[in-house]
Amino acid sequence: MLHLHSTSPDRWLRQVEENLNTILIDHAHCEQKAASTAMNLMFEYVENEALTATMTEIVTEELEHFHMVLKLLKERGIRFIKLKPGTYGRQLKALCRRQEPHKAMDHLLVAALIEARSCERFVLLRDHLDDRELSEFYGSLYESEARHHATYVRLAMDYGSQEEVGARLDELATAEAEIIAAGYEQPRVHS
Amino acid sequence: MLHLHSTSPDRWLRQVEENLNTILIDHAHCEQKAASTAMNLMFEYVENEALTATMTEIVTEELEHFHMVLKLLKERGIRFIKLKPGTYGRQLKALCRRQEPHKAMDHLLVAALIEARSCERFVLLRDHLDDRELSEFYGSLYESEARHHATYVRLAMDYGSQEEVGARLDELATAEAEIIAAGYEQPRVHS
């Protein structure tokens, strides 16, 4: 259902366990980026009424999550600082084609895959974290990531047939799995 | 209270009257840009807790207004299309200093002035438009612009003394009045 071509390697869970505070800070940045992505899509495709309406909901929801993470950081005395972003998002965005309608389709599918990977990882965090509060927190978040994933895939269908979208999602999911397999040396939500 | 150094020229009201549909479309874009500005400030100054909290509220509110304008456009059968943006915002942003904390102060004060000018013009639209629905619409919006103006000025005080902020606001307001006086050939909310 999430269209991912791999499960996260154990290596990632070890990165998380050893750097939980950094992962939480990065998670706050991810929610900001997700809000920003939705806002940018809304700006780019103003004439798509369904997209515009849905993106507004997603912006609002991501900002709510952002504040939930900020609250957690504050309660734990972790300072919210800037982090050098991982290369995951950048590498995925580099795969997007430049010409419309492919550009729209690809950006929506990349957003869908990022949501899918977050969902998969939030479930892992729910199941593996010893910290009960965080485990419950991630258990409360993963469903919205799955919902956003489905929303982005559905919106991509405005820019191509079901077959085209399915084939492209498959290609991008293969690339996404390779990026995840290569990893990133710093601990990040998508490292 | 709005710290503006000029009132809008009659020339602008004539532009509006002759191009009401374009002004409405541009208004939708302005609400998007206002949401985007608030989001970008939130991203840039993550460590400022009050700013982050307030910016989230402003993003949400601007997106609500955006949807109100979209609804008006739809009811009137006006297609929401991209418009070449006016030079107002760009010229103001070019005045922002590049080094912190001046950069933060200036971006917040420029945002404050844009809100102030919108407020002043929405009051003019309320008072001058023959179209009763639109007149009431702008009458319902101007107060939030005034509130946002005050919020941005208050947040700027985190980046300098009251005297410094007051002096800089004065300088920027002088420049803003010059940009408004020069005008823009296409009808825009800030032309």
CATH H-tier superfamily of chain A: Ferritin, core subunit, four-helix bundle
Largest interface: A-B, 25 and 25 residues
Number of domains of chain A: 1
CATH fold topology of chain A: Ferritin
What is the name of the CATH architecture of chain A? Up-down Bundle
Q: Globular, elongated, flat, extended or rod-shaped: what is the shape of chain A?
A: globular
> How large is the count of helical segments of chain A?
7
- Indicate the radius of gyration of chain A in whole angstroms: 16 Å
List how many beta strands of chain A DSSP finds.
Answer: 0
What CATH first level of chain A would be assigned? Mainly Alpha
Regions of chain A with pLDDT < 50 over 5+ consecutive residues?
none
Q: Structural class of the secondary structure composition of chain A? A: mainly alpha
Mean pLDDT of chain A: 95
* SSE ordering of chain A: HHHHHHH
Oligomer: homodimer
Percentage of residues in helical conformation of chain A:
over 70%
List descriptors.
homodimer; 191 residues; mainly alpha; Ferritin; globular
Question: What does this protein structure show overall?
Answer:
With 191 residues, the first copy, chain A, is mostly helical. Chain A has one domain (10-182): Ferritin. Chain A has helices at residues 10-18, 20-44, 49-75, 88-94, 102-128, 132-156, 162-182. Chain A is globular, with a radius of gyration of 16 Å. At the A-B interface, helix 2 and helix 3 of A face helix 2 and helix 3 of B.
